[in-house]
Amino acid sequence: MELYDAIHRRRDVRAQFTGEPVPADTLHRILDAAHAAPSVGYSQPWDFVLVRDAAVRRRFHRHVQAERATFAATLDDAAAERFARIKIDGVLESTLSVVVTYDPERGGPAVLGRHAIADAGLYSVCLAIQNLWLAATAEGLGVGWVSFYRESFLAELLGVPAGVRPVAWLCVGPVTHLEAVPDLERHGWRRRRPLAEAVHHDRWPQRVTDRPNS
């Protein structure tokens, strides 16, 4: 698959997982792609926890549903109605989850390039996640990033050491298809901004404000 095809075909998958396993050689390739990501100071601050245990996934899923209810309670009636139609995870439908973590001590005590931007290591982990996602798309797999969880809960669930942050729970697996239109757009939650609105030249555009008549 061409790189640009993978970028534009990539979707945040929830409902399309078939439940089939990920072949071992395919899994190795997508993890190798993730591990090849650039990182600040060549610190490579990520780790990948492969979660297949059904009991662990069920416990995490219960937590996700509780957090869904917490979020739903903050919405007005119209938004709550839209949200009720949106599936937020494929934790039980996919047979594999990959939890990606961030270790800020990796490469320390002096991480080259991080002295002025403390979050540069976290950005590096996000680059590894994007590499994994695009590689999985090129392999014909789906990936869904689950964000309805508390970091402290997930750290306890997986025995993540103190100081290491769980950044992403990714559901990974074969899918029936990838939707042509992202779920949140299909369900009327948000629409994609035109590229022209996001591109600025030389400096941030100044907002024109109305002046009172003098």
Automatic annotation (TrEMBL):
One Gene Ontology MF term: oxidoreductase activity
Keywords per UniProt: Flavoprotein, FMN, Oxidoreductase
Keyword Oxidoreductase: yes
Stated name of the protein: Cob(II)yrinic acid a,c-diamide reductase
Organism the protein comes from: Micromonospora haikouensis
Limits of the Nitroreductase domain: 7-173
Keyword RNA-binding: no
Pfam annotation, one family: Nitroreductase
InterPro entries linked: BluB (IPR012825), Nitroreductase (IPR029479), Nitroreductase-like (IPR000415), Nitroreductase/BluB (IPR050627)
